[in-house]
Write a structure and sequence with these properties.
Length: 391
Amino acid sequence: MKRSHPHRKCSLPAMFVSLSALVLISISILLFLYRPSSNSVSAVAAAADPGSSSLPELPRFSYFISGTAGDSGRLRRLLRALYHPRNYYLLHLDFAASDAERLDLAKFVKSEPAVSLFQNVMVMGKGNLVTSKGPTVMASTLHAAAILLRKAPNWDWFINIGSSDYPLMPQDDILHIFSYLPRDLNFIEHTSDIGWKEFQRARPIIIDPGLYHSKRSGVFWAKEKRSLPASFKLFMGSALMILSRSFLEFCIWGWDNLPRTLLMYYTNTLSSEEAYFHTVACNHRDYQNTTVNHSMRYVRWDEPPREEPANLTARDFDGMVGSGAPFGHSIPENDPLLDLIDRKLLLLLTDKEKRNPGDGVVVRPHSGSKRLEKLVVTLLDSHNFRSRQCK
């Protein structure tokens, strides 16, 4: 039976999330809520009923899209690929980029008809100084989250996107599947089994000149090493995340002192963006059970020790599709793979074919939603979800 919703229209190939998938997701939600009330049980049952007229409210994402000198063109392409009227977007070219590049990016944003109508894209007028592998990367992310918390109302998840990332499915598919998820889930790939990173990341002490200089340079290394902390447990993982609004409010407003304590600790830690949010979440009882151990990115790593992701090419296309991940990392600029993704996965339209921006509240899921559904059901399965949290 066909269901209608004022905010959603489904194409025939992916009209609904399958009944079995919704049942599994619903079970996970019930586990997540611990003590479900009769109302929550009724809501889950309604969501799992393919004949139900009740659909969950669509979420909103806030995207932080960042790049450096020479990345203005890549950010423009990313914005077009990621754009949806429901979402918010903050674009950032760091301190290494020229004012002319930032101005050019701002002019592009102003010239886009949909953006002018919905007023949901911001360009940072001043770039942060970001040192590779230094804490300034973490600081820039926190800065972006603070801006979006203040300027963009009512969003549910924060997604950080670099210039070498790219979506692997339309926003309609992601919004559709995420509408069935608890809004406080945090998708963070993490582990406490840090292995070689203990001696190359955790114990060394570094100083990032970007914190006090106006010119970019490498980090400084102290001769001394430090022991592992005793008052909290270290977690490390991917710097690519999808974080809930409630968790970021906790990190920035910090009614508990943990976020500030860890912020000071990670100021002298190499690649702190790969550990700060992970350690905050896993050391606080309110957020330990909100973590989903996946970055929601398709990444192909280099050979051991897997320190850097390998560049994706057209040979990775089938692997990307099969992963069900909504984003890919990392893809070289102007690589033919980007055109292949645009044509086969994003279904990007020509200027004449583009939807009327006035129907921005309409969501039309396609085949990508089925791939993402499969991934989400696997991640929230009872054998995977709890057993992989903060271990």
